[in-house]
Amino acid sequence: MSVEDNTIGNPVVNFIKNNSVELIIYLVVVLLIIGSKAIHPSFGSWSMVKSILVLSSFLAVVAFGQGMVILIGELDLSIASSLILSAVLITNLMGQTNSSNPLLMIVIIVGVLTLVGLFNGIGVAYLKIPSFIMTLASQTIVFGVVLGVTKGVSLGISPDAIRYFMTNSFMGIPLVILFLVLFVVFGTWFQKKSSFARKVYMVGGNRAASYIAGLPINRIIVGVYIISAWAGGLAGLLLVGYVNGSALTMGESYLLPSIAAVVIGGTLITGGKGGYVGTTGAAILLTTISIIIQSLGVSQGWQTFIYGIVILLVLVILQSDFGKVTSKRKGNN
Amino acid sequence: MNELKGKINVNLLKKGASNGVIISIVILIIVMSLYLSAVHNFNIYMLNNLFNNAIVLAIAATGLTLVILTGGFDLSIGGVIVLTNCIMAVYANSHSIFIAIILALLVGLFVGAINGYVVSYLGVQSIVATLATMIMCQGIALVILPAPGGVIIGSFLSIMNLIGDMIPTTLLIMLGLMVIWLWFKRTRLGINIYAIGADARAAEQSGISVKKTKFMAFLIAGVLYSLAGIIHTAHITSGDPTSGNYFIMLTFAAVAIGGTAFTGGKGGVIGSIIGAFILIALQKMLFAVGVSSFYTGIFQGAILILAVLIGAISTKLSEGGEKV
């Protein structure tokens, strides 16, 4: 099952071997940022790094939830709807009248997101509906509710505290970047150390064996979907502070990239293998690429095209012989 | 051993497929009767309109069904439909409708070939590979037509009309699609598609080229998406580079409602076509009843879950609780 059986030998070599996808991704990001100086003189600077990391934070947070779901061998297409739901609730419940009880509102919002996760989880785990269909359905249902209640126009502005958090810095470093670092540390710790995540890896790696071992598979799947809904909601909160408001279109652009980030970051789409450090690296890579493309001075259409072709090339390279030597993935569709 | 297993699988397939079709027909009858009771003066033109709306989704869902039967995913539908729509909107005016159609079909063929090559020969996960080609197509669509626009006129639009004030042309296209499918699924390629979706390893051992079969499924799917895009253009008579995600969602829903299993090897095109019809009839029904279009998604999602759930339950019952 595991290829990491080279326990004897140089620990540095082993570390590189076991984390090669992550190392390559971060190396490529650094090279891209340095190399981008050639495109635009203001690039390659600290301020560019800052803006890349700030913009990456939304995708990285969404991809944490998506990554947990993919680790167990499922998908979550409803994560963008959770993002929109949370953003709309925050601006409408908390932003419009800053006088309302914020603690109660937070409880309500987390509760609503938990319901979305429960709905997905119950459908996938207990009713055995394929996750692609279940979450596609819940995505349209949740979005339909948001659309119907708001009549297509989302009102309100960001609560002051969130706005403050997204616009201020501590010793020259934007607070949200510090948050991202903490989030990655916490996410990685959670995946590596928590007993829940260990079970997620086991179920994702071999569901039949986990069943025989007596793991409560259904409850673990429900838990993973709740985490995913929360992650979507958290990204919604960050976005509300960043754009000082909410829009019904704000989640769409994070759904499919979140799957791409997880896969490019070295997580097996069939589950059981991968980690959040790689996912975050891929989220930063995708954001860096799109920022560089935006500076090329070509039209929106060409930007989109180049972005697509770069994703395809990255996937092909990771899947090629070079990728197979350095990584642990298998050609499994 | 494998032969025996194959035979059992084929029997299960037949059962499952017929289940999916029967369930979707029942749902269709319910939705249609609700629709007919909500409108007072249902006429042939409303029927024509129903078919004109459903045909685009039905053709796209046909292509997607082939890919899903092999056990793959294809998100490039949205991209190809939008791109061919923009090609039609621009080149039908600047050149000729004939050139535009040829160009659109070639684009579908080309995108299908890229998908097929990258997924089956290079081994990239189909969901992310086709995500990339979808983004590329949307980009090119924006290059060709940066904002919604363009007007299509001429005899091309007559495929949206009634033949002799009696029969919707698109009904004939839909029936033609079904007949071609019934022939196709008995061809070597059709059988191979089911075989590799049911058990790729067993298929490989019995001499089927899994790579080639997968490639062909993506290729044909690409052409069908472009055909859907061409007919979509005749329906909306203009180009819109932004409607891609709408098609992805509805097409996947149509295939799922039609009873095709997302694990591959089980289901078929007839169910998907009926699934497409259900989704469109549902939209019309909700509109006729007076439900705000904002809420359409809630009903679409609910019917999607319901259809899959009923399908799963009836499969279980007919197989005595056996897991497939």
Unreliable parts of chain A: 325-333
| Strand element count of chain A | 2
Residues in helices of chain B, as a percent range: over 70%
Task: Evaluate the radius of gyration of chain B.
Answer: 20 Å
Helix content of chain A: over 70%
Give, in spatial order, the strands making up the sheet with the most strands of chain A: 1-2
How many DSSP E strands of chain B? Answer: 2
Proportion of residues in extended strands of chain B: under 5%
Question: What percent strand of chain A?
Answer: under 5%
Return the average pLDDT of chain A rounded to an integer: 83
End-to-end separation of chain A in angstroms reads 18 Å
* Backbone CA Rg of chain A: 20 Å
- Report the sheet with the most strands of chain A, covering strand number, pairing sense and barrel closure: 2 strands, antiparallel
Q: Total helix count of chain B?
A: 12
Give the N-to-C terminal Cα separation of chain B. Answer: 18 Å
Task: Work out the oligomeric state of the chains in this entry.
Answer: heterodimer
Give an overview in words.
Chain A is an all-alpha fold. Chain A contains 15 helices and two strands. Chain A has helices spanning 11-18, 20-35, 46-71, 79-95, 102-126, 131-150, 160-167, 175-193, 195-205, 207-212, 217-243, 252-264, 276-294, 300-319, 321-326; strands at residues 169-170, 173-174. Chain A has a two-stranded antiparallel ribbon with strand order 1-2. In chain A, strand 1 (169-170) and strand 2 form a beta hairpin. The radius of gyration of chain A is 20 Å and the shape is globular. Chain A starts with 10 loop residues before the first helix and ends in a 7-residue tail after the last helix. In chain A, 49% of the residues are buried. Chain B is mainly α. Helices cover 75% and strands 1% of the residues of chain B. Chain B has a two-stranded antiparallel sheet. Chain B contains twelve helices and two strands, in the order H-H-H-H-H-E-E-H-H-H-H-H-H-H. In chain B, helix 1 (2-38) crosses helix 12. At the A-B interface, helix 6, helix 12 and helix 14 of A face helix 4, helix 5, helix 10 and helix 12 of B.
